[in-house]
Amino acid sequence: xxxxxxxxxxxxxxxxxxxxxxxxxxxxxxxxxxxxxxxxxxxxxxxxxxxxxxxxxxxxxxxxxxxxxxxxxxxxxxxxxxxxxxxxxxxxxxxxxxxxxxxxxxxxxxxxxxxxxxxxxxxxxxxxxxxxxxxxxxxxxxxxxxxxxxxxxxxxxxxxxxxxxxxxxxxxxxxxxxxxxxxxxxxxxxxxxxxxxxxxxxxxxxxxxxxxxxxxxxxxxxxxxxxxxxxxxxxxxxxxxxxxxxxxxxxxxxxxxxxxxxxxxxxxxxxxxxxxxxxxxxxxxxxxxxxxxxxxxxxxxxxxxxxxxxxxxxxxxxxxxxxxxxxxxxxxxxxxxxxxxxxxxxxxxxxxxxxxxxxxxxxxxxxxxxxxxxxxxxxxxxxxxxxxxxxxxxxxxxxxxxxxxxxxxxxxxxxxxxxxxxxxxxxxxxxxxxxxxxxxxxxxxxxxxxxxxxxxxxxxxxxxxxxxxxxxxxxxxxxxxxxxxxxxxxxxxxxxxxx
Length: 499
What we know:
- This protein has helices at residues 20-32, 393-396, 446-451, and strands at residues 3-5, 36-40, 43-47, 50-51, 56-60, 64-68, 92-95, 98-104, 107-109, 139-142, 145-150, 153-155, 162-165, 168-173, 176-178, 189-192, 195-200, 203-206, 211-214, 222-234, 237-242, 249-261, 264-270, 275-287, 296-302, 331-343, 347-351, 358-369, 400-418, 459-473, 485-487, 492-497.
- The chain is mainly beta.
- Strand 1, helix 1 and strand 2 form a beta-alpha-beta unit.
- It is elongated.
- It starts with a strand and ends with a strand.
C-alpha cells in the first residue's frame, strides 16, 4: 500500500501548530480509499487527539516526534472510563477499528508535566499531584481487532500511557516507555478486558505499574495473554493482574523478564468478585529495590470489596456516588512460579478468605536474596486494598519470608534463601531514600539498620489457616534463636530441608 507523508497534506513541524486536523483528515482519507501508511517524518509535530482508523498504519520515522498539546481544547472529548484514570481525553485514539498499526522509530511525547502540579507535596507523597483534567490514557485503543504497536518510543505521559480496552489480537512489540518515577498514575501498559494479546521485547521505565491486566463492569474477561522478554522498571508493580477485577483472568503466561526496580515483582489481586486462574510465571530476575518501605516480593490477595473506586470518582463522572455491590466472590487458584531469582527486603504474601482459601499455588526453583530485612510491624493498622491489603492486622504486621493466611495446596520446591549479612555493604535504595519517614522502623535508624544493630527478625514461614509443603536448602529463620515457623493450630506446614 502507498505511503502518505503528513507534510504533503498540511502538517507543519514547528512544534506550535495543532496538526491534529491535518493528520486526522489524511488518516480518514487513506482508510476510506482502502488503507496505507501515513508517515510522520523527522521533526516535531504538535497535535491534539489523533484518531487511528481501519487498515491504516501511522508510521513515525526516526527523528519524528508527535508532541501532545498542552491545551485540553485540542483533544476530542469521549467518556469517562470505569475510574478517574480513564478520562475523556486521549492523544492517540482508535475506537471500533480493525487492522490498525502504530510503528516506527519515532517518539510520542505527551507533555505530561503540563497537566500536573510542579512537585510532590512532600516525601510522603507517592506521586506528584495531578490535575483532574488531563489526557489519560495517552494512547487509548478501544474495541479494536488486529492491532500492532511496534518499535515506537512513548514518553512523558500525563496519566496511563498505553491502554487497550476489549481488544482482540493486540500485539505490542519492542516499544520503549519512559515516564518520571513520581508521575501521577503513569502506568506503562494497561489492558482491560483484552484477549489474544502478545507483549514482547518492551523496555518500560515508569512511575506506576509497568504492565497491568484489568477488568471492570464495562469490560470482558482477560484471556490468552503472553508477556515475554521485557525489561521493567517501576516505582510500583512489575506485572499486576487484578485489583480492578469485576471479570475473570485466565490463561496468562509471563516469562523471561528482568525487573531491576519495583516495589512488588508480581501482584495478583482478586478484589471485586473475579476468578484469577491458570497463570504461569517463569524465568524472572527481579529486585524490589524501589526506595520505598514495605515492599513485597510477590503478593496474592483475595478480597471482596465493592465500590473500590467510588470515593475517587469526580462529581462529573457518571458513576459518581453509585453503589456497585458484588455479584460473586473472589477466587485465586492454579498459579505457578518457576525459575525466579528475587532480591528483596520484604515478603511473599498470600492472603485468602475464610472458607475460600487461595488454592493450588506452586513455586519451583525459587531464589530469595535479602540484602536487609524490612519491618512490617509499623504497618499493622494500614487499611487499604492498595497498600498491604488484607482483612487481618496480624497478617499485615507479620515478618516472614512467606506470610500465609487462608491458603491450601501450596507447594514451594527448590527454595534457596540467603539472609542478610551485616554490616550491609551492598547498595539498597532505602539507605539513601527520602521515604524513610514513612516507616517508624527506618526513620532515624538507617545507620543502625545498615550495621545490624537494629534488625527485623524473620521467620521462614508465618501461617494462619494454611497448608503448605516447602523443600529447599538451609531452611531457617533469619536469627538463630527465632523459630523457623510461626503457625497456628489450624495450619499444616511440612518442611523438607535437602541440605
